[in-house]
């Protein structure tokens, strides 16, 4: 028996009857030999962790554009916090941690520079539309490894695609990530907003604090305990009505106090204009895109989609530098 087979046997013996078993995966689009050490979901986790799109998350905006300070979250630190929350819940419920972690690490790979501002710009200007959760799947299926994709399992791709609250993954592990994503940004966006002086803990409505607590740590503890308590031993991931309503209320509060706050979002119109300008430029100068994107065009991919692939892949810094190079006059010397 190989190490992988012994790990798969351990899953069958220990995991919840509602967990996703590695040996029972629906598989990959392209068949490939099994690893003798790692089950399929662990391999997927590793592939995402070593991908270029994952590394680029460190220079992509979470909420605050180009903040002054070392402790504000980026899209990468958000992803790591989602992963940690999700693994804690999955372990407590005896779900598949490897699958949970793979989905969590991959869920935002398709995010644009400047966070949701860049996403809004591309969705507005591209006739084919642009949604980051769909782009994340496109990244792992097609764009990574110079057009080969990562060839991930169906379960991981399903969890990545359906991590939005308006959607529903087919596995419990995907549903854990779906809620962990919201818990993470409620937790860290509030923390960052307090650090930035945009609001204080006392600004949170008292009825919300009465349910969820008055500090980021208390809220995180209440939300995760509630999911674990209400999902234990059942084929579903759910919250109590009281805590679920409070979570929805604090999300609405955050949208009003932070996500649409003119102080926090004062630069977003500039970011959107920059992304739109780059999109229009490469639509007319496609030959200036890197070779890997030109190869997508040769394979029959539509030009607007490939331009979105390129512009959407940029980090904040790369997008700004590219804009400056293309549109800002340079000084010169004799």
Characterization of this structure:
By secondary structure, the protein is mainly α. The chain has a single domain (3-327), classed as Orthogonal Bundle (Hypothetical protein af1432). The protein has 16 helices and no strands. Helix 14 packs antiparallel against helix 15 (303-313). The longest helix is centred in the middle third of the chain and has 24 residues, at 172-195.
Q: What is the fold's blueprint, element by element?
A:
Layout: H1 3-14, H2 40-49, H3 52-56, H4 75-92, H5 97-106, H6 115-125, H7 132-147, H8 154-161, H9 172-195, H10 206-212, H11 216-231, H12 241-259, H13 268-284, H14 291-298, H15 303-313, H16 316-327
Helix pairs in contact: 2-5, 4-5, 4-9, 4-11, 5-8, 5-9, 6-13, 8-9, 9-11, 9-12, 10-12, 13-15, 13-16, 14-15
Please outline what is shown here.
It is built from 16 helices and no strands. The N and C termini lie far apart (72 Å).
- The outline comes out as flat
Task: Tell me the strand percentage band.
Answer: under 5%
Which H/E pattern describes the elements? HHHHHHHHHHHHHHHH
Alpha-beta content class: mainly alpha
User: What oligomeric assembly is this protein in?
Assistant: single chain
Query: What is the CATH domain class?
Result: Mainly Alpha
Q: How many β-strand stretches?
A: 0
The CATH architecture name reads Orthogonal Bundle
Q: Which stretches are poorly predicted, pLDDT < 50 over at least 5 residues?
A: none
The separation of the N and C termini measures 72 Å
Largest sheet composition? none
Relevant CATH superfamily: Hypothetical protein af1432
Fold-level CATH name: Hypothetical protein af1432
SS element count, helices: 16
**What number is the mean pLDDT?**
94
Helix content: 55-70%
Rg computed from alpha carbons, rounded to a whole number of angstroms: 21 Å
How many discrete domains?
Answer: 1
